[in-house]
Amino acid sequence: MRIFRIIGRSVNSSFKSIFRNFSLSMASITCTIITLLLVSIGILLSYNINNITKDIENELTIVILMDKKITSEELDVAKTTLKSVDNVENVKFNSKEAIKKDLASQNDTYAKIVETWGEDENPLQDSFVITVVNVKDINETATTIKNIDKVDRVKYGESMVNELINIFDVVKNATIVLVVALVLVTTFLIGNTIKITIFSRRSEIDIMRLVGTSNTVIKLPFIIEGFLLGTIGSIIPILITIIGYTYAFNSLSSAEMTNILNVIKLTEPSSIVYLTSLILLIIGSVVGMLGSLRAVRRYLTI
Amino acid sequence: MEFIEFKNCSKAYKNGVTALTNANLSIKKGDFVFIIGHTASGKSTLIKLLYREEKPTSGIVSVGGVDVSKLRNSKIYKLRRKIGIVFQDFKLLPKLTVYENVAYPLASYGMKGSEIRPLVLSALEKVGLKDRTRSFPDQLSGGEQQRVCIARAIVNNPKLLICDEPTGNLDPDTSKEIMDLINKINKKFGTTVVTATHDKDIVNCLKKRVIVMKDGLIEGDYLKGGYKNNENI
Fold it and tell me: Checking CA distances to A155, which of A44, A204, A233, A262 falls within 20 to 30 Å?
């Protein structure tokens, strides 16, 4: 019972202290809000860049043009061989007839050209379109495919793909570094602000020690206060994250914007905002608590 | 056995200043003792050793049979719960009311609110501030703040009351009132009182045991002393 009374009084005193030291509490909360907003932007940016690069990676395909004189049996063999190649994820066959029809349906000019071709005069080639498991190994996969029997040409935009892969790597690493750096800066800033709050109350801690309060009982209200300041400070960034991101998602998903920004497709809010909010809440409360504990411990040593 | 004992006790600070040299002193239970001396004579260090705000460099400091110099930092609070301390600057929590300030030590021990209330009101009655429970420290005069400090020091009925320059910030009339109050507590409740002071009038008026300190040494110990006997200090 004694322990519950002490905890209850500590919670009570933490709330009182937040209001009685209102300006300092506001300073801590404001600092937490600003830094957590930065963290939130960092997380959302990093997650979306990652997703966009993944989407682009998924759209990278290898087009294999087969020999013009290939027979249907040889096509079957080639399909089976392609499927067995390492790193090949999906194999899709496009017959030259299908491509012809597709061309004809695209516009009138194409349709007129296609009409001039006789029954056996289709100059197009049967082809396979394959997607790969790992884009990084696309060069090796293309080389292997080139050596398959009856393969005429292999196209996958070599120079562009290599450049893209390098850019993706840099962007991914940069966003990870950004988020980690922001979390560290946040930890430092929140911890330091709470340290200043407690520094201004060192005489209070001194008095508590002198009247026979145990170190645990002195620490408890400060730890709870740090936790509360961090938690309160994370509420606004959480709300901004949820409302702001949903708004940004809806704006970018509107029909006109989709036409303009074909590549920039934001991730669905439901899959990211709640996770980000949870991360913000944890960072705010835990950093607040630990920053407070660290600061108060300094004034408890004699 | 003596209630307070200093045996060959010395204290040197990290900056090289030796504040106390080989002090030997005994104080009986229920005694009222003044420690007098110039600034930097070592009286504050002697007082701080009693409530383990400082640790002796060598020697023993015993309070109620416990060698306080050997107490671990995390256990000091147990010693401080048995003693009351009155400070020159009152050391009241500015954001707490008079009642909350006096109740603070008891609440921090985890006592029930219903047990705390009569003890706090009784302590405030002893110092004559029962009607100021809701005031904040900055709404009180210096003398009243010192009374609150005394109430907080005696609320737990300590066996030892340590006063470090209790009248240092007060005018002569208020100083006399405060010392009369401390004297009354000593007489009525048998609380041992150790008071460090500069105040000649009070020492002369109360005629209690006086320990004279100079340059970290105990220079004199007078049973019915006063500044009159020690005008050279």
Answer: A262
Give the closest-approach CA distance of B224 to chain A in angstroms. Answer: 31
Put the strands of the sheet holding A61-66 in their side by side order: A88-94, A127-132, A61-66, A151-155
- Structure confidence by residue, pLDDT tens digits, A75-97: 888 888 888 888 888 888 988 88
Tokens (6 digits) for A41: 């932007």
Q: What is the CATH number of domain A61-155?
A: 3.30.70.3040
Which residue's entry shows tokens 């040299």?
Answer: B21
B79 vs B180: CA distance, rounded Å: 26
CB A276 within 8 A of CB A43: yes
The tokens describing B215, both together, are 């340059």
Chain A with chain B: Cβ pairs closer than 8 A: 66
CA distance B165 to A75: 104
Topology of the domain comprising B1-82+158-227 = Rossmann fold (3.40.50)
Q: Which of B77, B161, B163 would you mutate first to test chain A, the one with the most A CBs within 10 A?
A: B77
Residues of A in contact with B74 (CB under 8 A): 214-215
pTM above 0.90, yes or no: no
